[in-house]
Write a structure and sequence with these properties.
- This protein is α/β, with parallel strands linked by helices.
- The chain has 3 domains: 357 residues, no CATH class; 137 residues, no CATH class; 281 residues, SET domain (Beta-clip-like, Beta Complex).
- 28% of the residues lie in helices and 14% in strands.
- The chain is built from 22 helices and 28 strands.
- Helix 1 packs across helix 2, helix 1 crosses helix 3 and helix 11 runs antiparallel to helix 12.
- The structure holds S-adenosylmethionine.
- The site of S-adenosylmethionine has 18 residues, from strand 20 and strand 25.
- One of its GO terms (molecular function) is histone methyltransferase activity.
- Keywords: Chromosome, Metal-binding, Nucleus, Transferase, Zinc.
């Protein structure tokens, strides 16, 4: 295998400063592991980090050399060794530039590094007052540490759960202030570093050279030998991985000030103190800070006296005081920060404070986080674009940021940019999974430049373009309040009034009830993940939410229904145990074929065969022409009143589909197993504009004979259902009910059907997506067919919906409930039919003659339609 050119380059660079491959190899390996193969971190500044690490390794190996190297720093070493440091304490001090964040330090934090710990200066900064030092000491209290390492599942290192709970400040920002670290080094190493610096500055014109920056940089450390090394950033809660380090800089929004005692200030949970000189050296800062969710004013602002108008940052060229101490108060819920380097690297940092009361806190992997975030977005914002990805959103954001930051034609502050241009595409797609009341969610602009749109529930935030500051720095700073879908409490208008520059409040159009909120959060896929496919919902008509119910993908017995699924009950003649593979491919139909006339009901493509389907359609649509069965002692009538029995109104003798099942020898993918595989079509629950409430539609073209879904609900005896109906009538509830399906297809086969076997399905409380299918008189585009799967007992079967014709994408899927609108004594609530069919039985045209004529019309219509 050809050697990795990056490895070769690393060797070459080290060789140039007198380090052999043998020395480089082990250290490089460790660094790659430590930095998650992030070569940029190793390569930057001409492999400075690598050189540092090698020297540290070497120094650890040769104590004599180390002693020599430590000349002049004995005092500090003594201090260090006499007081074993707690990790965070060291690191916190690092923020003031006193701790090395070199790989060895970080590895030491991880607990198993052969790297030597960096030396730590024990003295305060030159000119630093004792007060300053003591304030540093105050913030250097040991804190829980968690190490975030993207892409590593095992990257969490936590300290004391109690600490975690009591100090829920999980915000950490990688400090770019490696130059502020002061570390004593051996002369040899110093020489090499100088060499390295020179090399790294070669050809980097637009950037200030490190040497130049060194000159500009105030000599804060008081040591001419101080070499500035990488510092891990720490915050009271978290230490970030080296991967998340510089050269990104925290918004420069607050001057550093030491004169306010920390005790008097709100307790900071994030401190970012980039080295000003370093900022000058490396970056044209473009920083955006978006504060989400009612964030309080940063404590640092309080510390700084909140002197500046409009939160505009102080130019970094001021003094050391202009170094930032940006703190985020405990109450802050989320803080978004964006930073970029002149090299075009953009970093988005989101910190939030939501650990309170979460004793089981652990660091999730980045993959886990993204997945969970994606799911949450899909649920909350009802995005159904299959390409939706949080990562993509973040990338888009970076791109937009760079566009904004680099396009000089965008002079006007009025200009706005889409963070997520892809959302425009979504606008064009069918409205899904959300309320679409207005294309544009009501948004208040506290001060121009911020906008929000909602296209079918997908919100596109727009951020203000960067502000051109007089000192040439471009800084974006916007506090933003987004309250979507009523998820937040009241008082938003007040917040709007108080909003600072660029603040945004998206006002909810609809205050959710607890049930709706629950639904919104958990059911944006109406199936709750129970099906193979997700089924979103959409309301483009009003602000109603889908009814709350329990989604079940399979029928469940409520109480008294007798359903026997035992294998022993399936006799040899009821299963094809000798079959192998796909029963449909066999030359002779096996015992599981649905009937002798048509053989199997399905085609090899998984559709119901045309002739079988036609038989079912004509049987359902023209019952007068087919056989109806009349019971002598009708279980339906019995369930209503078994003392004064009404005569049976008739039951349709239906054709059954029989599917292979567990006792069959064929393959699970056998073509005679369709319904049992569950929903495969792209469906959507939507609010119908015709006043039928919610309905179901397809999002894709469905050929004739396609299995759409099963009618799933609680298996009740008809007696139980009737009792339910009575209870509902007395409870005065006006909500819509799912229409029950009576499983009466085999009643003709039995002399007397007892109550436990006279079953129906009720999807009102427990059901699947079929509970949303609306009724259409006669020419519905779906037909229900009884399907036997697990049990040869005909009194229990599955009721499956198949398309009765080709159905176009976005067409509503309908089913003829078989309802007689003139019969007030039905097991179901009657409704004013709005099916829109010209065969509607609810228009007082329901004489059987007229129906018959209409049926002829329908047949003709269907023939015409099929002929195209
Ligand atoms: C099985 S549910 C269908 C889903 C229902 N539309 C909803 O919003 O939950 C049956 C109920 O929907 C309504 N419905 C169904 N078909 C209808 C039609 N053609 N015209 C008017 N309302 C209809 C009736 O209220 C009926 O009781």
């Amino acid at each position: 295998m050809a050697p990795n050119p990056r490895v070769v380059n690393a060797f070459r660079a080290m060789r140039a400063i007198g380090i052999t491959e043998k020395q480089v190899k082990p250290v490089l390996k460790k660094m790659l592991k430590l930095y998650d193969k992030n070569w940029e971190l190793i390569e930057e500044e001409n492999y400075r980090a690598l050189a540092d690490a090698i020297f540290e390794e070497e120094e650890a190996k040769v104590p004599e050399e180390k002693d020599e190297a430590a000349e002049g720093t004995l005092e500090e070493e003594t201090l260090v060794s006499s007081e074993p440091e707690l990790p965070l304490k060291r690191l916190r001090r690092g923020q003031d530039g006193q701790v090395s964040g070199s790989p060895s330090d970080i590895e030491a934090e991880l607990g198993g590094s052969p790297f030597k710990k960096s030396k730590v200066e024990g003295k305060g900064l030159a000119g630093e007052t004792s007060e300053q030092q003591s304030s540093d000491m105050r913030i250097s209290q040991p804190k829980p540490i968690a190490i975030w390492s993207p892409n590593r599942n095992t990257s969490s290192q936590t300290v004391s759960p109690d600490m975690r709970i009591s100090q829920p400040k999980p915000i950490a920002i990688w400090s770019p202030n490696r130059n502020t670290s002061s570390q004593t080094v051996s002369p040899r190493r110093l020489a090499v570093l100088e060499h390295s610096k020179q090399r790294s500055n070669e050809g980097k014109d637009p950037l200030l050279s490190e040497a130049a920056a060194q000159q500009k940089r105030p000599n804060l450390k008081g040591s001419s030998q101080a070499v500035h090394l990488k510092d891990p950033i720490v915050q009271q809660g978290i230490l970030l991985s080296p991967k998340q380090k510089m050269p990104l800089i925290k918004p420069k929004d607050e001057p550093f000030t030491d004169d306010v005692p920390f005790d008097d200030a709100p307790q900071p949970i994030a401190i970012i103190r980039p080295d000003c000189a370093r900022k000058e050296q490396y970056f044209n800062q473009r920083v955006s800070s978006l504060k989400l969710h009612r964030q309080e004013r940063p404590a640092s602002r309080v510390l700084a006296g909140e002197g500046r108008e409009g939160n505009l940052p102080v130019p970094s060229s001021l003094t050391r005081d202009s170094c930032e101490l940006a703190t985020i108060p405990e109450e802050a819920q989320a803080n978004l920060e964006i930073a970029t380097s002149a090299l075009g690297e953009v970093k988005i940092s989101l910190s939030c404070n939501s650990l309170l009361g979460r004793p089981n806190f652990h660091m999730p992997s980045q993959d886990e986080l993204l997945k969970s975030m994606q799911e949450k977005c899909l649920r909350t914002y009802k995005i159904i674009d299959p390409n939706f990805s949080v990562m993509q959103i973040l990338k888009d954001m970076c791109e937009c940021f760079l566009d904004l930051a680099t396009d000089s034609s965008h002079e006007s502050q009025e200009r706005i940019l889409n963070v997520t241009p892809a959302l425009d595409l979504m606008k064009k797609s069918a409205g899904v999974g959300a309320i679409k009341q207005n294309d544009r969610i009501q948004a208040y602009f506290a001060n121009r430049s911020v906008d929000a749109y909602c296209f079918d529930g997908k919100a596109a935030l727009q951020i203000p373009r960067s502000l051109q500051l007089s000192n040439g720095l471009e800084v974006m700073h916007s506090r933003e309040e987004v309250i979507a879908n009523g998820c937040s409490g009241s008082g938003k208008e007040k917040e709007f009034e108080d909003a600072e520059y660029g603040s945004l409040i998206v006002v909810p159009q609809h205050q959710l009830t607890a049930d709706e909120f629950r639904f919104l959060n958990y059911h944006s896929d109406i199936t709750k993940g129970e099906e193979m496919v997700e089924i979103p919902w959409s309301n483009e008509v009003n602000s109603e939410f889908p009814p709350v119910f329990n989604y079940i993908p399979r029928n469940l017995i409520f109480q008294n229904a007798y359903v026997n699924f035992s294998l022993s009950q399936i006799r040899a003649e009821n299963c094809c145990s000798a079959c192998i593979g796909n029963c449909l491919s066999s030359s002779t139909p096996c015992v599981c074929s649905s009937d002798s006339e048509h053989g199997f009901a399905y085609t090899l493509e998984g559709l119901v065969k045309e002739d079988f389907l036609e038989d079912c359609i004509s049987l359902t649509r023209n019952p007068q022409r087919q056989f109806l069965f009349y019971c002598r002692d009708c279980p339906l009538e019995r369930s209503k009143n078994d003392e004064m029995l009404e005569p049976c109104k008739g039951h349709l003798k239906r054709k059954f589909i029989k599917e292979c099942w567990s006792k069959c020898g064929c393959h699970k993918q056998c073509g005679n197993r369709v319904v049992q595989r569950g929903i495969m079509c792209k469906l959507q629950v939507f609010f119908t504009p015709e006043g039928k409430g919610w309905g179901l539609r397809t999002l894709e073209l469905l050929p004739k004979g396609t299995f759409v879904c099963e009618y799933v609900g609680e298996i009740l005896t008809n007696k139980e259902f009737y009792e339910r109906k009575m209870q509902r009538a007395t409870s005065n509830k006006t909500e819509k009910h799912a229409y029950p399906a009576v499983l009466d297809a085999d009643w003709c086969l039995k002399g007397v059907v007892n109550d436990e076997e006279a079953l129906c399905l009720d999807a009102t409380f427990y059901g699947n997506v079929a509970r949303f299918i609306n009724h259409r008189c006669l020419d519905a585009n779906m037909i229900e067919i009884p399907v036997k799967i697990e049990t040869p007992d005909h009194h229990y079967y599955h009721l499956a919906f198949f398309t009765a014709r080709e159905v176009n994408a976005l067409e509503e899927l309908t089913w003829d409930y078989g309802i007689d609108f003139d019969d007030t004594d039905q097991p179901v609530e009657l409704f004013q039919c709005r099916c829109g069919s010209k065969f509607c039985r609810n228009m007082k045209r329901s004489s059987s003659k007229l129906i018959l004529n209409l049926y002829e019309d329908l047949i003709q219509q269907q023939d015409d339609w099929e002929r195209g």
